[in-house]
Amino acid sequence: MLLKTTIQGLATAVKGLTLTVRHLFSARKSREQLDIKQADYFDKQDGVTTVQFPNEKMPIPEVARYQLDVEIDDCIVCDLCAKACPVDCITIEAIKSPEAIGKTSDGSVKRLYAAEFDIDMAKCMYCGLCTVVCPTECITMTDQYDRVTTNLADLTYTFADMSEAEIKQRKEEWTRFQAEKEAAKKK
After folding, report:
1. Phi, psi (degrees; rounded to nearest 5) at 141
2. Which of 8, 161, 12, 164 is nearest to 75 (CA)?
3. Cis ω on the peptide bond leading into residue 86 (within 30° of 0)?
4. Same domain as 158, residue 72
5. What integer best gives the mean pLDDT of the chain?
6. DSSP state, 30?
7. Residues of the domain holding 118
8. Of 64, 79, 148, 156, which one is least surrounded by beta carbons within 10 A?
């Protein structure tokens, strides 16, 4: 019994070593350099088959989910994306406007200013829920995936384009409008 299991163990080890040695010698020759866009790129070739990044890049699927981007001119600051985000990586601060401030590319009326619209990509889990709930489709997934940094603060992207002075002015306008509205009610 002991002899039988010893022989089986040695036979298994020889099989594994044979496979390893065969791969070792076949990997000594490098494969033919093909452009990644060629149709036969993924056909099996003998030799080393590593994609030589960054010189070669894998094709990106059309439905892939990578870096988020916001077209702030189309944003109606509805806050649905921030509410849908399961990891709370989207921060939005809205300032109300007394009247309509414009229209988006799909014709939606804008009534809120985006004082703050930040996305912390270090927290983002790339689920795409924010893009699904956006009524104006202003938040989208791009094909950017190789943004690397050593500072986590660099991964917080700011999309709002209002200055501090403009934010203060818009808040004062809204406060004044509310005060005038209350005064008109009391009359």
Report:
1. -95, 130
2. 161
3. no
4. yes
5. 87
6. B
7. 68-164
8. 148
